[in-house]
Automatic annotation (TrEMBL):
<protein>
    <submittedName>
        <fullName>Arsenite efflux membrane protein ArsB</fullName>
    </submittedName>
</protein>
<feature type="transmembrane region" description="Helical">
    <location>
        <begin position="426"/>
        <end position="442"/>
    </location>
</feature>
<feature type="transmembrane region" description="Helical">
    <location>
        <begin position="151"/>
        <end position="170"/>
    </location>
</feature>
<keyword id="KW-1133">Transmembrane helix</keyword>
<feature type="transmembrane region" description="Helical">
    <location>
        <begin position="35"/>
        <end position="54"/>
    </location>
</feature>
<keyword id="KW-0472">Membrane</keyword>
<feature type="domain" description="Citrate transporter-like">
    <location>
        <begin position="32"/>
        <end position="371"/>
    </location>
</feature>
<feature type="transmembrane region" description="Helical">
    <location>
        <begin position="109"/>
        <end position="139"/>
    </location>
</feature>
<feature type="transmembrane region" description="Helical">
    <location>
        <begin position="231"/>
        <end position="252"/>
    </location>
</feature>
<feature type="transmembrane region" description="Helical">
    <location>
        <begin position="66"/>
        <end position="89"/>
    </location>
</feature>
<dbReference type="GO" id="GO:0005886">
    <property type="term" value="C:plasma membrane"/>
</dbReference>
<keyword id="KW-0812">Transmembrane</keyword>
<feature type="transmembrane region" description="Helical">
    <location>
        <begin position="190"/>
        <end position="210"/>
    </location>
</feature>
<keyword id="KW-0813">Transport</keyword>
<comment type="similarity">
    <text>Belongs to the CitM (TC 2.A.11) transporter family.</text>
</comment>
<dbReference type="InterPro" id="IPR004680">
    <property type="entry name" value="Cit_transptr-like_dom"/>
</dbReference>
<feature type="transmembrane region" description="Helical">
    <location>
        <begin position="381"/>
        <end position="406"/>
    </location>
</feature>
C-alpha cells in the first residue's frame, strides 16, 4: 500500500511540476512551481509515514557510488560558475559577433547559430545557451520578419545534443558518471563519437527539413550591439581567465586525484569573491547603499536555478523509497539486456521516452540506481542512459526542465511553442539521432 501511495505521489509531482498549477487563496494567486510542489510532496510523504526525516537524510547518503549531496554541489556549483560567466556579458557579445559574421546570409546564419550553440553548450550548459541565444533569435525574427521556428528548434535540439560530450554539460551526465566512477577523460573518450554523430546527423536533417523556410537574406540592421552588456572590461577578462582555469581543473583534475565536487566548490568560492569585489563598481544610484553595492552579487546568486533544489531532493527520496520496496531492482532486471548491440540501442530509446514520462533528472536517478542494484556494469548501457537522458529532452517539451523554461521564454517574446508543434518538428529527427548515436557507442 505504501509503495502504491509513493508511486501516485511520484507521478503527481511530475504532473504538477510540468503544469505549474495556479491556485487562489484569500484573493492571492499562488503558483505551484517546482519548489512549492516538491516541498508539499515531501511533507505529504512524511505525514503519511512513508518517509521520515531519517529517510531524507539517508536518501542523500552514498548509494551504489551515487552520492546525492555531492551531485547537488556539482550541479548548483557549476550553475553558479556558468551564471557568473554569463552575467559578465561575454557570451552575449560573442554570440553577437558570430551572428554578424553571417553577413545577413540566411543559410550562413543558420549554421553559425547551430555552431555557436555547440561551442557554448560544450563549455557551459544547455540552460545558459537557451537563456542567451533564444532572445537573440526572437529579436532577429521580430525586426527581419523571418520565421523563427527553424532556428529556435535547431538551437534547442543542438543544446540538448552537445551537452552529452562532457559530464558537466548536463546534471544527468553527472549522475551516471558518479554511479559508474567515470573520470573526465574516460567519459569524454566514450561520448565524443556519439555526440559528434548526433550533432552532425541532427543538424543536417533539420537543414534538409527547413531549407525552404530559411531565407536567403536576413536583415540584421536592427540588432543591438551588446557592448553595454559587458558590465566591466576588467571583470569580463578576469571572468574568462578564471573560467578557463576552472575548465582546466575539471579536465585534468583526475590526474591529481582531485574530486570534482571539491574543485567546483573551490571555484564557486573564487567566483563569489570575484563577484563581491566587482559588485561595488556596478552599483546603481540607489539610496540603499548596501543594495547598491551588492546588487550584482545577489543578482548573480539569484539567477542560479535554486527552485530545482527541492525537486531533485524529493526525487532522491522517492528513489530511496523505491529501493526499499524493491522497485528499482525490478526495473533493473527488465533492462538487463543480454545482447549488447540491441541492448545499447534499446536502453537509449527506453530512457529517452521514460524521460518524457518523468522528466530526465528523476528518470536518470531512477535508472542509474536500478542498473546498479541489478548489477549492470556494462558501460555501453551506462553511456546509452546518458544519450537517453539528453536527447529525451528533444522528444517533447516535458522531457527536461529546460524545455519547460524554453517554452516560457518564447511565450514572453510572443512565440507560441506547444507540445504538438514541438513533437511535429523534432520526433523524426530525434528518433534517427538516438539510434545513430547509440550505434556509435558500439565502435
Amino acid at each position: 500500500m505504501s509503495l502504491i501511495i509513493a508511486l501516485n505521489l511520484f507521478f503527481a509531482t511530475i504532473f504538477l511540476v510540468t503544469r505549474e498549477t495556479k491556485l487562489r487563496f484569500r484573493n492571492k494567486e499562488i503558483v505551484l512551481d517546482y519548489a512549492r510542489v516538491s516541498i508539499l510532496v515531501l511533507i505529504l510523504l512524511i505525514i503519511s509515514g512513508i518517509a521520515s526525516i531519517s529517510t531524507v537524510k539517508n536518501a542523500l547518503m552514498p548509494q551504489f557510488n551515487i552520492v546525492p549531496w555531492q551531485i547537488l554541489i556539482i550541479f548548483f556549483g557549476s550553475a553558479y560558475v556558468c551564471t557568473s560567466l554569463d552575467m559578465s556579458g561575454v557570451l552575449k557579445y560573442f554570440a553577437y559577433k558570430l551572428v554578424l559574421a553571417s553577413k545577413e546570409n540566411g543559410v550562413r546564419l543558420y549554421f553559425n547559430l547551430v555552431f555557436l550553440t555547440a561551442i557554448m553548450t560544450i563549455f557551459t550548459s544547455n540552460d545558459i545557451v537557451t537563456l542567451t541565444l533564444t532572445p537573440i533569435v526572437a529579436y532577429i525574427a521580430r525586426y527581419s520578419g523571418i520565421n523563427p521556428i527553424p532556428f529556435l528548434i535547431s538551437i534547442f535540439f543542438a543544446s540538448n545534443t552537445w551537452s552529452m560530450i562532457f559530464y558537466i554539460g548536463n546534471p544527468t551526465n553527472v549522475i551516471v558518471a558518479q554511479a559508474y566512477s567515470l573520470r573526465f577523460f574516460e567519459y569524454a573518450k566514450y561520448m565524443l563519437l556519439p555526440t559528434l554523430v548526433a550533432g552532425i546527423v541532427s543538424t543536417l536533417m533539420f537543414f534538409l527539413i527547413y531549407r525552404k523556410q530559411i531565407p536567403q537574406a536576413v536583415s540584421l540592421a536592427q540588432l543591438e550591439d551588446p557592448k553595454e552588456d559587458i558590465v566591466n572590461k576588467y571583470y569580463s577578462i578576469l571572468n574568462v581567465v578564471v573560467f578557463a582555469i576552472f575548465f582546466g581543473f575539471l579536465a585534468f583534475g583526475d590526474l591529481f586525484n582531485l574530486e570534482l565536487w571539491k574543485t567546483i566548490l573551490v571555484f564557486c568560492g573564487i567566483y563569489a569573491v570575484l563577484n563581491l569585489i566587482f559588485s561595488s563598481s556596478f552599483a546603481s544610484d540607489s539610496k540603499d547603499k548596501f543594495t547598491a553595492n551588492f546588487s550584482f552579487f545577489f543578482e548573480t546568486f539569484k539567477r542560479v536555478p535554486w527552485k530545482i533544489l527541492p525537486l531533485v531532493l524529493v526525487f532522491f527520496v522517492f528513489v530511496y523509497i523505491f529501493n526499499l520496496y524493491g522497485l528499482t531492482r525490478y526495473v533493473g532486471n527488465l533492462i538487463n539486456f543480454k545482447n549488447q548491440a540491441l541492448g545499447t540501442v534499446l536502453m537509449a530509446l527506453i530512457t529517452s521516452f521514460a524521460a518524457n514520462l518523468m522528466i530526465n533528472q528523476p528518470m536518470t536517478i531512477l535508472f542509474a540506481n536500478a542498473m546498479k542494484v541489478a548489477g549492470i556494469e556494462n558501460l555501453k548501457y551506462a553511456y546509452a542512459l546518458v544519450i537517453g537522458s539528453n536527447l529525451g529532452g528533444n522528444i517533447t517539451l516535458m522531457g527536461a526542465l529546460a524545455g519547460l523554461m524554453w517554452s516560457r521564454i518564447l511565450a514572453y517574446y510572443g512565440i507560441k511553442m506547444d507540445n504538438k508543434t514541438f513533437v511535429k518538428n523534432t520526433l523524426p529527427v530525434v528518433l534517427v539521432t538516438i539510434v545513430a548515436s547509440s550505434l556509435a557507442l558500439l565502435f
